[in-house]
Design goal:
- By secondary structure, the protein is of the alpha/beta class.
- The chain has three domains: 237 residues, Alpha-Beta Barrel (TIM Barrel), CATH 3.20.20.110; 41 residues, no CATH class; 86 residues, Beta Barrel (Elongation Factor Tu (Ef-tu), domain 3).
- The chain is built from ten helices and 19 strands.
- Helix 1 runs parallel beside helix 9 and helix 3 crosses helix 4.
- The protein is globular.
Length: 424
């Protein structure tokens, strides 16, 4: 069996570099236009050109998401973007719309076509059809079980299959949701005016995550009274699904024929990317080579560091038609926050980009590749002129000497991170 690709999200260039540093084989990202993640930073034309060159110099892969459903007035702009992408030579274009497929074959003929999960591919005949239309990969709907995926893989062996294996799940079928548009439209339950000036469409990449709001029941003639529909004493979140986590099921994923293991999260943080990517890197590598160390408790601790809802195995083992996947608590769990990232190493000092205020007494962990996690015993901070400073604040660039609890200086690597206890 060939080792599957570990595919990580990259909401911007910095996150792309972090994803590769912590072990991703490939990343998927979006441009400023036509991406289903409109509220992340994304890439402009110059940035995506640089990102593709950076990726290919590492010998890795990058896929560009153009997976919105566009309207006739957007067609010419979409075609122009495809012409530009053809000159960049990314490793794939992720699309949902048949019109996008038509234009991609015409204007980006040398770029492999990947069919987005947003296209709701749930059977072998749809996969065969996409293959005949020129696709080289299909990202299957999240609602398929492993046995169904294996059947598709056996019947259509000459096309790559990709699935999400970790991250947030949508309450709607393959993310095809209208709740956000409805709840942010004037006169249709829109929230406070200052919160939503425009209709926010999930299918245009601007989901307001209405499924994660807490709901009440009102009776028309008693508008002042709220009637709860309680799941428990924490409130009513009947539309909020559990997050997916397949860290304990790598073998089943491999045996089903999946070629690319995809982590959700183009809007997620550097802390999320570093923790989740390195955990799955370790799990996948250990499955194929038992000489690579693997500590299940360490991996679990790593996954729990970042904000998430309750974990589940999605619908890989259970039918969405029979088994609900809603949360029993609305709480997001998070144990750590990002303190800094090693932007560079100069004169045996780490050049830190600061994300949360740190000082010499902060309780910090130093995090690197291959599950390297070191409790920091001492950190000395310096400004650009080499003067000692007592505190480093958000967005500052600070040089630092960082030591273990045994007094040994840490061997810094660019894109390693520092994290600290979360107090919220």
């Amino acid at each position: 069996m060939n080792k599957p690709e570990l595919l990580a999200p990259a909401g911007d260039f910095e996150k792309l570099k972090v994803a590769f540093h912590f072990g991703a084989d490939a990343v998927y990202t979006g441009l400023k236009e036509f991406s289903l993640r409109a509220n992340t930073k994304n890439f402009d034309n110059k940035e995506i050109e640089d990102a593709i060159n950076y990726t290919h110099n590492l010998g890795k892969k990058i896929y560009l998401a153009l997976n919105i459903y566009f309207t006739p007035d957007e067609a010419d702009t979409f075609a122009e973007k495809l012409k530009f992408i053809e000159t960049l030579k990314p490793d794939g274009i992720i699309i949902s719309d048949l019109g996008a497929l038509y234009l991609a074959k015409k204007y980006s003929p040398s770029i492999p076509i990947h069919i987005s999960t947003q296209a709701n591919t749930t059977n072998q005949y749809a996969v065969k059809m996409y293959k005949e239309l020129g696709a080289s990969r299909v990202i299957l709907a999240r609602e398929l079980s492993l046995s169904q995926i294996e059947l598709i893989s056996n019947e259509v062996p000459d096309i790559e299959l990709e699935t999400f294996i970790h991250g947030a799940m949508c309450i709607s079928y393959s993310g095809r949701c209208l709740i956000s548009s409805y709840m942010t439209k004037d006169g249709l339950g829109k929230r406070l005016k200052e919160e939503a000036e425009e209709i926010r469409s999930a299918n245009k990449g601007d989901c307001s995550h209405s499924c994660r709001w807490e709901y009440i029941l009102k009776e028309k003639t008693r508008a002042e009274q709220n009637y709860t529909i309680e799941e428990d004493d924490k409130g009513t979140y009947i539309l909020s699904s559990k997050d997916m986590c397949m860290i304990d099921n790598i073998g089943d994923l491999v045996k089903s024929g999946i070629k690319s293991f995809k982590i959700e999260g183009r809007m997620k943080s550097i802390l999320y990317i570093s923790s989740i990517v390195r955990a799955y890197r370790q799990a996948i590598d250990n499955y194929f080579d038992k000489n690579i160390p693997y500590n299940r408790q360490t991996i679990e601790d790593e996954l729990n560091i970042v904000s998430h809802r309750e974990f589940s195995t999605g619908f890989f083992y259970y039918s969405p038609m029979k088994d609900a996947n809603i949360t029993v608590t609305p709480a997001y769990k998070r144990e750590k926050r990002l303190a800094a990232m090693v932007e560079d190493v100069k004169n045996d000092r780490a050049v830190l980009k600061i994300y949360n205020t740190i000082n010499p007494t902060s309780q910090i962990e130093y995090v690197g590749k291959n599950m390297l996690t070191i409790k920091v015993g001492k950190i000395s901070l310096y400004d650009k002129d080499g003067n000692v400073v007592e505190k480093a604040n958000h967005s500052q660039y600070i040089e630092a000497d960082i030591f273990t609890t045994d007094g040994e200086k840490i061997n810094y690597q660019q894109f390693d991170i520092l994290r600290m206890e979360s107090d919220f």
